[in-house]
Every structure is written in structure tokens, then in C-alpha cells.
Design a protein that fits this description.
Number of strands: 2
Largest sheet: 2 strands, parallel
Structural class: mainly alpha
Radius of gyration: 21 Å
Number of domains: 1
Helix content: 40-55%
Order of helices and strands: EHHEH
């Protein structure tokens, strides 16, 4: 709709168990935990594109990205909505 800005952080999850929790639940060793973290990070990139995210950003860039999105929103032309009907007293 070109009126929203949607960002995702690498490694963030959307309603699923994270790698650390899954590793603890499975009583995994360090090698399995590293593989789970790698897959979790990789899946963030795939999820961001499939779920319509604008960008996958480093958390340290959050402030800059929000300021950029707000600047873009303010620079767009705002047209007043057309009246749909009259309200009679």
C-alpha cells in the first residue's frame, strides 16, 4: 500500500520457538546449537521476503530507518479526504 514501513531484525522469530529454546528443549550440544542459530538467521531472510517486509535491518540501524521512513511519509503529498455525505443536525 506504500503507506507502511515494515522492518525485521535478523534472528527474530514470528510466533515460533527460537533456536536457544529449541536447543534447550532437545538438550542439544554446542554444534547442534550453532547449526540451529545458523538456520534461524537464514530463515529470517527468507521470511522477510515472503511476509512482505520492506527490509531486514541490523538492530543498530533502527533509529536511522525509522527517521528515514518518517521523512518519506512527511514528504508525500497529503490530500484531504473527500466528504462522503452530509451529516444533518
Amino acid at each position: 500500500d506504500n503507506q507502511t514501513a515494515t522492518f525485521k531484525f535478523p534472528g527474530s522469530t514470528s510466533g515460533v520457538m527460537g533456536a536457544s529454546s529449541a536447543s534447550n528443549a532437545m538438550k542439544s550440544d554446542d554444534e547442534q546449537l550453532a547449526e540451529l542459530h545458523r538456520r534461524e538467521l537464514e530463515s529470517s531472510y527468507h521470511a522477510a521476503t515472503r511476509l512482505g517486509m520492506d527490509e531486514l535491518i541490523d538492530p543498530r540501524e533502527t533509529r536511522n530507518m525509522l527517521l528515514s521512513a518518517l521523512g518519506l511519509a512527511l514528504s508525500r503529498r497529503q490530500v484531504a479526504p473527500e466528504p462522503r455525505g452530509r451529516i444533518w443536525p
